[in-house]
Design a protein that fits this description.
Layout (H helix, E strand, L loop, with lengths): L6 H22 L7 H20 L9
């Protein structure tokens, strides 16, 4: 079964996803002790997940 969100669901999911991932990064930042590349890597991983959802057409941003 293929799940596909409509445009409004995709936008809401993306905003909540980005807010949560940003919060996780801010919470983890003090524990990284200045290793900013790890934080950048975590951010890129979260963006990769978002891209994969868009690429697999789970997220739908078209006006159709």
């Amino acid at each position: 079964m293929k799940y596909r969100m409509n445009r409004k669901q995709s936008i809401i999911f993306t905003v909540i996803y980005l807010a949560l991932t940003l919060a996780v990064r801010f919470i983890l930042e003090p524990y990284l002790l200045g290793y900013y590349l790890i934080s950048v890597g975590i951010g890129l991983y979260f963006i990769l997940i978002l891209w994969a959802l868009w690429h697999k057409k789970v997220l739908n941003f078209s006006k159709n």
